[in-house]
């Protein structure tokens, strides 16, 4: 199958993230998921299949810029998550060494997060078996062993450049304003199950329920 430019760009981004993931040190040793390229590829590709070209290009530029100054955006993403899962460790050993976000940026991120958490909750109500396979939903459900969808998203958004975040927020706002609204969690999970060999969410839900 011939890949178009966006397909090639997505593949490049997923491979770039994978390479950064390989250089992410996990407390307690290397995580099992760091050796599972097929699942990593499926999950990240499904997310990026929902993104328009300009957002893909901007994020690819973020990854390149990070390499040039010695930043690892994947490591930073997991570090930012520790603000919720290991706050003392975050304050002492992570927060001083990562870029600080402005109050305006944090407020705008929280608006995006609120919308996406609502979409994820709606998806889980309609596809409960697929929902059970997802992360727990909200930050107040975090534990040292389990990071929620909300906390993961907050960590990831915090690594985006201002340009990339602006494009991302525009995408979310456009979906929320559509009639009917376009649930990005549902679209991402549809791509996920199709990459896993299913035709539809309904088919995947039925298999999970069996």
TrEMBL record:
InterPro entries: DUF4125
Recorded superkingdom: Bacteria
Full protein name: DUF4125 domain-containing protein
Protein species of origin: Bifidobacterium felsineum
